[in-house]
Amino acid sequence: MIAAVPLAAVEPPLLVEDLSFAWADGRLALDGCGLRVPGPGLWMLVGSNGSGKSTLLRLIAGLISPRSGHIRTTAKPALVFQNPDHQLLLPSVGSDLQLGMPADLPAGEVRGRVARALEQVGLAGLERRPIHTLSGGQKQRLAIAGALAGEAGLLLLDEPTALLDPDSQRDVLALIGRLCHRRENPLTALWITHRLEELEGCDGAARMEGGRIGPWQSGSQLRRSLNPLPAGRAER
Ligand SMILES: Nc1ncnc2c1ncn2[C@@H]1O[C@H](COP(=O)(O)OP(=O)(O)OP(=O)(O)O)[C@@H](O)[C@H]1O
Ligand SMILES: [Mg+2]
Prior knowledge:
The protein has two domains: 1-27 and 40-75 and 153-227, Rossmann fold, CATH 3.40.50.300; 91-150, no CATH class. The protein is built from six helices and nine strands, in the order βββαββαααβαβββα. It has helices at residues 53-61, 93-98, 107-120, 136-149, 166-181, 219-226; strands at 14-22, 28-37, 41-46, 68-73, 77-80, 154-158, 188-192, 204-209, 212-213. A six-stranded mixed sheet has the order 5-6-7-3-8-9, sandwiched between helices. A three-stranded antiparallel sheet has the order 2-1-4, covered by helices on one side. Helix 4 packs parallel to helix 5 (166-181). The longest helix has 16 residues, at 166-181. The protein is globular, with a radius of gyration of 19 Å. Magnesium ion is lined by residues 53-54, 158.
């Protein structure tokens, strides 16, 4: 008989404990914040403006340091911002992807990684394309390819579809869903959104308010609680 592994023994991809952070003016942006992402998958956070969501992602990515508390990750984190123009730095698709790779990688390995990353996000063969010729959705997929080329396993997505048209929004959401549910080496994604319809596509969703995060719920449950239907109307 195979012994069951107790859940507590499995290291979660992301564990945040009692995290506090204050900006220079002394105001607390996070206050005893805790979050346990139980496994690979697509996990979403919603919350009002200024509730601390972007600050939390910056802390997890290591861009800023907490005043107190702990962050444990089992995979390399990578941030994906709302506006891909803020993170795509070099003029061509291929050169931009190389930026996140170790400088001492052999040229053949670099080319292979670039090609694989582009293929995974549906941009195969576009190595030589100037970035300014890409659509908004393609740029956002390129930003995700950058995380993959850098071998990130924990994607931190800060309203990644806020500037996209509905088709590109669906494409990016579906892409992250596929990467988080693939059989081999599934990724973990923490996705911040104000677009409540996106909650339907996640594995779990939680609400952040006042620098703290509530319990995981199903996306549709959280969506209903935030956006209750007018009295007397049944959901279709
Ligand atoms: N660079 C900064 N310097 C000082 N205060 C900041 C800075 N960045 C954010 N804050 C403050 O920290 C708090 C949390 O901001 P944060 O950007 O994390 O919120 P958010 O939940 O991402 O909001 P939104 O939904 O509008 O993106 C807010 O009170 C904000 O004004
Ligand atoms: Mg924000």
